[in-house]
Amino acid sequence: MIALGSDHGGLALKQHVMAWLDDHGLAYKDYGCYTSESCDYPDFGRAAAEAVASGECDRGIVICTTGIGISIAANKVKGIRCALCSEPLSAEMTRRHNDANMLAMGGGLIGNNMADRIVEVFLNTEFEGGRHQRRVNKLEP
Q1: Band of pLDDT at residue 40, cut at 50, 70 and 90
Q2: Is 82 known to be catalytic?
Q3: Contact 101, 108 (CB under 8 A)
Q4: Distance CA 32, CA 17 (A)
Q5: Contact 68, 84 (CB under 8 A)
Q6: Is the dihedral of CA 65, 47, 53, 135 positive or negative?
């Protein structure tokens, strides 16, 4: 199950990602927002991150206008490694080397086609483990 969250600036891209997940038969839970009215990204980034940290969801995708604020909010939750990615190589490497469990994107910066590829790579790339596990362990407080 994929946890989703966005603010108003990321709503349109989140809705596109939801359609992509539907097309690929992947389950998700939307933690908001649900309208284009101005709202606060920390509320929705935190809700999605808590679902991932608790094990309710396996991974998460959060979106605000730039992806910056919502990624910071998600990373405040213990056990979350949320990476802001604007292209597929970063999505691949953050899974391979950082075992990122959440992806952040900027709805005002990334088009639908690029988002499709980033999401696909993020969800289909496995963590390499090995020396990278030692480093990931050092990220925990």
Answers
A1: very high
A2: no
A3: no
A4: 13
A5: yes
A6: positive
